[in-house]
Amino acid sequence: RQSLRKLADNDDLRIGSSIRYDALMEDTAYQELATTEFSSWTIENEMKMDAMQPEENAFNYVKVDEMTEMAQAHDIAIRGHVLVWGEALPAWVQEQAVDRVSAERILKSHIQNIVTHYKGSIDTFDVVNEAYHDNGTLRDNIWLRTIGPDYIPLAFQWAHEANPDANLYYNDFGTEMSNKKSEAMLEALSAWKEEGVPIDGIGTQMHLDAADTRFSKDRIAEWFQRIEDAGFQVAVTEMDVKLQNLNNGDAKNIQAERYRDVMEACLDTAACGEFTVWGISDNHSWITEQESADGKPLLFNENSQPKKAYHTIQRKLLF
Ligand code: G3I
């Protein structure tokens, strides 16, 4: 078959998947798909703070270095995920980040060590992840409590200082269409950008539920255009479409349509340069592990065979 990667190259589109270290090293079918079907890898878990800095100042680069080397050998780009998040934190942060000064020191050091280490091999980062609630207010986390809302622009500034050439993204879920959360996010990011904060792009995760009747391709396309008009790049960063809530023989078709529609919205938006799915095959998916074995949210089944959704986006890229 014609790989997605080959087809996406013609559209100047990065087609990506999140990648897990263990699966990459141990599952040969997974490695084969990872290296042939995709032109971008997002580090699914190994770059989160608990994995990267398990003890203060003891950076653990081994796994991500290996992944980066394999990616480079196959001419695959890497998306660094994630520098700043309220989750996946090592225990020591709770003890050490006690006030604004200590939290800023810790966060700056974390960001700048990683961005510097991967200068030349990682050109795109999710700098800040999931900072907003659905109602548009900022989520409580240790960085907000100690530093305040400034932790967001500061994170971008620190990353930019370490590598002025890197593409720096804000990344969140539930922000694929206009709503309270996405409007608050875009307003704040736009204001910071106008003040000169180096925010290059907005990642819309796109964790979809096939049973969600509010889905609208037109509203997604409109929203992508709003992001572009505000001067940002757009990326689909974590797409999957879970099926467990849909009691319907048509589930596979609906899933395929969702993938096709989002791909189409991305292709129709000049500023959308990346379409990334959150996992390759259903047997290595957070939905399977954390929600339901009936979720089956990805492009390949548990035997690493392409599903209808795969063929549908393949056709979308062809024509
Ligand atoms: O690998 C260990 C295993 O050795 C251990 O026995 C087992 C017991 O809990 O845990 C395994 O690690 C789990 C890991 O996923 C690998 O499956 C962690 O507990 C679990 O917390 C971790 O969950 C990840 C989650 O983020 C939290 O960091 C998911 O894989 C990952 O897909 C998910 O990704 C997030 C994005 O980063 C941000 N956007 C939402 C997205 C989905 O939640």
From TrEMBL:
The keyword Hydrolase applies. Keywords: Carbohydrate metabolism, Glycosidase, Hydrolase, Membrane, Polysaccharide degradation, Signal, Transmembrane, Transmembrane helix, Xylan degradation. Its EC number is 3.2.1.8. Residues 1-316 form the GH10 domain. It catalyses: Endohydrolysis of (1->4)-beta-D-xylosidic linkages in xylans. Gene3D superfamilies: Glycosidases. Belongs to the glycosyl hydrolase 10 (cellulase F) family. This is Beta-xylanase. It comes from Terribacillus aidingensis. The lineage of its organism: Bacteria, Bacillati, Bacillota, Bacilli, Bacillales.
